[in-house]
Amino acid sequence: MDLEVDRQHLSTVRIVDAASPALQPGEARLRVRRFALTANNITYAVFGDMMQYWNFFPAGPADDGVNWGRVPVWGFADVVESTVGELAEGTRVYGYLPMSHELVVQPGRFDDRGFVDMAAHRAPMAAAYNRYVFCDEDPIYDADREPHQMVLYPLFFTSFMIDDVLDDTGQLPGTVVISSASAKTAIGAAYLLSRREGAHVVGLTSARNAEFVRELGCYHEVLTYDALHELPSGPASYVDIAGDSAVTRAVHEHFADSLKYSMIVGGTHWDGPPAVPGDLPGPTPEFFFAPSQIAKRSKEWGRDGLEARTVDAWGAYRDWVDGWLHFERSHGAAGVEHTYQQLLAGRVDPRVGHVCTMEDE
Predict the structure, then answer these.
(1) Kind and range of the H or E element at 77?
(2) Does domain 154-291 have CATH number 3.20.20.150?
(3) Is 174 helix (H, G, I), strand (E, B) or coil?
(4) What pLDDT, in 10s, does the model give residues 286-335?
């Protein structure tokens, strides 16, 4: 069973109940057990064509003229059938999955931590999305805290890279303005940045979420979108997680030449004004792609060095979020679709992490 989305009209969804294909030599079947749904998954859908997110888990052909797609999610799966000697049935893995009951993969490039899906259609995409980690060998895995890893770790890893890019490009110390400040990627970035000496982190958010964002304590200043004239002066960087061109224009016009860096991360305001025009004052916004910075740091620090830094930061962050975050679960295709629609419409409580399963429980 798969949940598929109309790629041109993201609120149009269908449930497809297809028979499981027989495995071919070199394949394994993963049963998708649990996955997270966050605003990050809406970003995957919004930028699905530009960034090839739709290509990871192609939807089956349709006879109604609609271009269907499967939105990627992060979660846990169990190996329930395998033709590959190195991959035993019963192995639990963490990685990139579809909103489906199962996924057939072609495991290869094994090491002591996991494997890569070698399916030809995934080869052109970033390697970071094609790797599956053995939970028994994962330094961040905790069976009692799987929801934290599903909901937060992919976002936190992006947050870690946002913080690292700003430091790596010489934007720190200084003012960093972050839109969609209640989004979990924004919160993770603000948490890390606020711990850097000399960084001044300003969060932009809706009036509805302003109190929550202030209570987090990781933003030095919080402004609602109707108060952008109150932004500070002086050199600044902008981290755009909302994807709202009107907000981006207002920030660029406020800082003008004092804006030193502008980063497009997400599209939580996916139904807002159209793409950012090219006549903005200040720097041209640059699209942020976490795997590029991951590859850079892996080369400079080594895989173990990058892992050590992120694991250390993750442990402190995971403990910190327990002070404000709780988890809610959605079961079955109808429950998952409801949660997806709520996220798409922006009607979710930022204090909640959504954990889903296509299985009826």
Answers:
(1) strand 72-82
(2) no
(3) strand
(4) 888 877 888 899 899 998 899 899 999 999 999 999 999 999 999 999 99
